[in-house]
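thoughts on these tokens:
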Amino acid sequence: MHKQFKAKPCKRFGAALWKHRKLTLKQEKAILLNKKKMNMRKISNFSLQLRAKQLVSTLYGQLRLQQFKQLIRKSEKYKGKMAHILFSLLEKRVDSCLVQLKFAPTFLAARQLINHQKVFVNNQIVKSPSFILNPGDLISFKDDTKEMIAANVQTLSQQQQNQQVQIYKSLHFEVNYKTLEAIFLFSPQQIHYPTQIEPELIVKSLR
């Protein structure tokens, strides 16, 4: 049931959004068919912007419109290209970092850890999944949850090996999987997504 549920957004966007999730042959065909249909349709600029926003929302655990707008306001405080800053902030959210590092299998699981006050940044409890990491910040966990975190890492690593997925190492972290700690080193310069994303469309849809 869980895998079938995950296939629904994949079919919607015509792409395998979670590489470590095994899809059935029927699901793969449905995704490919929908992708062909999408490529044949003439889509308005509004529809393109809406689809781009919905895709990014799905990839980052169903972010709400208000959360996007908060990130846009934060992005305006930095110098540089708005789209690059926006996606950098998305990657620096603490829930996103937990998923990147395999400490949590999904954004829902990451947010549950945070909401249950199991996650520390610089030895202080993090209370919000939207907390933005800064260079030098240390992620760690309460002792009573470390066994589960270690199991998450092992399971996700095995799933990636079984699926023979190309793994992009998070170079902007220094990770110790023995102590289950990670130091955020710098903002990611390159972000790898499972399907094509048009960052500028996201910005246009939110401004």
